[in-house]
């Protein structure tokens, strides 16, 4: 070995740290053995614990997921139950609303049907104002016509109030229907979502992590959720029951008002018939009296003519008697004697004058009576015309107009 190399090795040995003793070497190795064994033991325990933890968590995860799946299925059943309840109530409220609409149509037809009878009754009252004289009387017909107008107006007012009530009930029905539809819409969405969640598995392709999913804001409790749908169902039931009661009321009102209108219509028609019969009887009696009066006028006219002729016929005897008296005043001297002839002629003149005066007085009285008969003739003829006018108004204008009135069940 070269000397330089040997010197270098010796120099390094002199500068190297001190060496360990063999016992120290054995102890150091034993420490390493023990340390490795402890580390290995800890690792084995951790492996075993990890396996137990993995198994436990797997079981817990599967159990929890199974429980979640079960709860989702239960939730689906609850949603389906309430959806069915809501759907049934929606179907009921829709059908009830349709029926109530048909009742509203009946009300509107009934209101329309009241127009003609009411107009006819008012027109009859106006026509009867055209009666004249004593026939412009507040009779039974007028009283019943006024009552008929009041009945028809009352029916119209009642039907209009009922129609307004029906409109309000229809609005409430539609509100209940809207709430059911919105609830059903939400239930359908929730059912779709939970159905989707129910079908998800660990191997589904569209699963993934999501942030902040544990916190749910503005959520309601299950009791509130149930109460919400139950309230919608109860409100729908309430409005449906109210609608049923209103339909029964409408049916009763329509039946009763139609009956009242028909009854009053018959009463007015009977009053018209009785009044027309009574007026015809009076007119016939007036015509009979007029005929008798005309006969009496003819008789009185003939009587006046006879009285005038009688007066005229007395002029000749009066002239004869007066001429005889005047002529006998020309008898001469003692022949101008107041003999029985003279007295008789004087009596004759007085008698004829008295009889002529009686005839003239009777003629004057007869002429007065004739004037009275003529006035009575005019009065009877005017009254017959009044009755004819009344009959035309009642029998032709009013009764024929009323024949077109048709009051049926609404």
From TrEMBL:
Coiled coil location: 276-310, 349-383
An example Gene Ontology CC term for this record: nucleus
Gene Ontology biological-process annotations: cilium assembly; cilium movement involved in cell motility
Cell location: Cytoplasm, Cytoskeleton, Cilium axoneme; Cytoplasm, Cytoskeleton, Flagellum axoneme
UniProt-listed InterPro entries: Tektin-like, Tektins
Sorted UniProt keywords: Cell projection, Cilium, Coiled coil, Cytoplasm, Cytoskeleton, Flagellum
Pfam families named among the record's database cross-references: Tektin
Subunit-structure text: Microtubule inner protein component of sperm flagellar doublet microtubules.
Family classification: Belongs to the tektin family.
Purpose of the protein: Microtubule inner protein (MIP) part of the dynein-decorated doublet microtubules (DMTs) in cilia and flagellar axoneme. Forms filamentous polymers in the walls of ciliary and flagellar microtubules.
Protein name as catalogued: Tektin
Taxonomic path: Eukaryota, Metazoa, Chordata, Craniata, Vertebrata
Gene designation per UniProt: TEKT1
């Amino acid at each position: 070995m070269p000397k330089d190399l040997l010197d270098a090795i010796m120099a390094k040995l002199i500068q190297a740290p001190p060496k360990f003793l063999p016992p120290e070497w054995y102890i150091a190795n034993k420490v390493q053995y023990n340390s490795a064994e402890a580390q290995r033991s800890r690792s084995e325990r951790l492996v075993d614990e990890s396996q137990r933890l993995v198994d436990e968590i797997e079981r817990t995860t599967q159990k929890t997921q199974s429980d979640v799946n079960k709860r989702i299925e239960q939730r689906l059943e609850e949603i389906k139950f309430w959806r069915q309840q809501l759907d049934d109530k929606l179907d009921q409220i829709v059908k009830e609303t349709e029926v109530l609409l048909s009742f509203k149509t009946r009300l509107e037809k009934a209101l329309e049907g009241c127009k003609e009878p009411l107009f006819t009754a008012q027109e009859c009252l106006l026509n009867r104002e055209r009666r004249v004289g004593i026939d412009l009387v507040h009779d039974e017909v007028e009283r019943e016509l006024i009552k008929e107008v009041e009945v028809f107006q009352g029916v119209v007012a009642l039907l209009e109030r009922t129609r307004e009530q029906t409109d309000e009930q229809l609005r409430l029905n539609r509100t209940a229907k809207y709430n059911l539809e919105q609830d059903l819409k939400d239930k359908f969405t929730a059912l779709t979502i939970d159905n989707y969640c129910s079908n998800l598995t660990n191997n589904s392709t569209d699963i993934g992590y999501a942030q902040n999913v544990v916190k749910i804001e503005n959520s309601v409790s299950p009791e509130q959720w149930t109460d919400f749908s139950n309230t919608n169902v109860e409100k729908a039931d309430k409005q449906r029951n109210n609608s049923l009661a209103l339909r029964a009321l409408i049916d009763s009102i329509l039946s009763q008002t139609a009956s009242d209108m028909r009854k009053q219509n018959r009463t007015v028609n009977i009053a018209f018939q009785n009044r027309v019969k009574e007026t015809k009887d009076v007119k016939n009696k007036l015509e009979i009296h007029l005929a008798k009066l005309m006969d009496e006028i003819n008789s009185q006219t003939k009587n006046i003519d006879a009285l005038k002729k009688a007066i005229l016929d007395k002029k000749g005897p009066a002239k004869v008697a007066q001429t005889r008296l005047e002529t006998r005043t020309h008898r001469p001297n003692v022949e101008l004697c107041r003999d029985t002839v003279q007295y008789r002629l004087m009596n004759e003149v007085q008698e004829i004058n008295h009889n002529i005066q009686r005839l003239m007085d009777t003629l004057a009285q007869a002429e007065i009576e004739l004037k009275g008969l003529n006035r009575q003739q005019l009065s009877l003829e005017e009254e017959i015309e009044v009755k004819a006018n009344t009959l035309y108004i009642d029998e032709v204008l009013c009764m024929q107009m009323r024949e077109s009135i048709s009051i049926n069940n609404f």
